[in-house]
Amino acid sequence: MNEIEAHTGTLRTRVRQIIHGRDTALGGLFDIAIMIAIIASICLIAFTIDPGMDRWSATLNGMEWFFTMLFTIEYALRLWTAESSRLYARSFFGIIDLLAILPAYVILVVGPEMEYLAVLRALRVARIIRVFRLFADVGRLRTTFAIFLTLMTGGFIWYFLRTPERTVIVLSTGSDSGLYHRMGREVKNVVESAHPDLTIELRTSGGSNDNIRALENGKAQIALVQNDDVSGESVRSIAALHPEILHLISRVDANIRTLEDLTGRRVATGAPGSGTRQITRELLAFADISLDADQARPLSTAKAISQLENGEIDAAFFLSGLGSSEIREAMANPGLTLSGIHVGESDTGAEATATRFTEGFRIYYPNVAPHSIPQMAYEGRPASPIASLSVQAILACSAGLDQDVVVRVTRTLFEKRAILSSRETAFSYLNESTTRSGLQFPLHRGAENYYFRQEPGFLAENAETMGFLLTLVLLAWSAVNWFRKWYSQNQKNRIDTYYRAVDTIIQRLNDPVTLQELDELESEFLKIRKQAADELVREKLAADESFIIYQNMLNVCQSMLFRIRERT
Length: 568
Description:
There is one protein chain. The chain is of the alpha/beta class. The protein is built from 20 helices and 10 strands. Strands 1, 2, 3, 4, 5, 6, 7, 8, 9 and 10 form a 10-stranded mixed beta sheet that branches. The chain is rod-shaped, with a radius of gyration of 42 Å.
């Protein structure tokens, strides 16, 4: 047992020499290593605060724990090797050392949801205060070199790691000449302009149904879809963009006025995979209108208009935003006209007719709304409003899309609404107060965070800043104290020089001296007194207790000079 105690005592002494000693090579290396570790940990904290380093968060968190464990071991060794563990724990630097490591363990126990503790986490920066102490212990030149080297290395690491990793988002639109694609192009422009780290790739498709499938199978992350599409659990809403109105365009000579007149006619029901085809199929089934395979033709918008003009078909359905260029071009042909979306003759207005018909259709097919095509909406046509129905076009996304990305995209839509509306009139329907109503697909969590402004509280949001400011105060206070101690020590060192100079004269006066030597000593004495007085005036010396001791020595020396001169 005694041998073990002796060995432990010897080990403790050796460790104490390394940690607390300044006159050994290992002690100097230890101080420099701790200094580099402190500066590196401060750089790491700066990295974690910088949003541009978010993609390295896992690596930074691991490194943060490495430094926490390193400083924990150092703190334990200082406690073990200090002459008085209690005095060290209560000392200023002991408290700073504890604050540098304690918050990490507190958050580990309490849980990361206690975000206000980030104020304590930021106090890790306070550990840089130890650098001032090491600055004096290690030496200015070596300390400055170590700090410079560490900061330069940290700066290079930050420069190369912070280069933003571009997030590529695939936006599925529609045909390259359709409204969806034009709207998608404008969304791409404003989002990429506002967020340089986001890249949006446009993907053409057959329409809304294709876009839903693309979201479900991961081929796209954002898509323009109709609110009536059928989907699984993986689709989420971002915002309702505009109502898509179902247009029924027919040849004038076909005399098609209502849905019932389509029986036995050749009708374009929309391209395969499009929202037009889906709602048209359900609408004809609801109105009990049967079309065989030759009569119901799945045609794209361009082909349907071309065949209408050539007389190959009698009518065609188009689900499009009001005032779309395709419908406008078709209505420029006097041989084509708009027909009402309802059954039976109606002696009421278009709005009432649309409401009456749509309320019944809604029971069979939800997510539609009554609508009417206004009078003269297309270059003077129609001559009177036409009853119809509409479905909301929405910007949707996959459920797994990052919340922060969705928040930024949603915010950009509404912040850039004026720009979007000036380029594509369909965006003029964007309204934050109504864009969430009637959505079939649930809102993405990121969109919810924007609409309901679910932002962190003041303490959580500003914790790092508050902690940083608190650290700056501690740092400034420590720097002032260090400077005062350094200045005081510098003054003490200067007064010590005068102590030694006067003491040298006194020692020489204790030995026999010649008159010539006495003159030399008196001249040196006057020179010392004048120089000290000048430095006192310039405040290089403080008129404190040390200066009083110096004056007493000066008086003693002057008395000795006077007595010896009289004797001589």
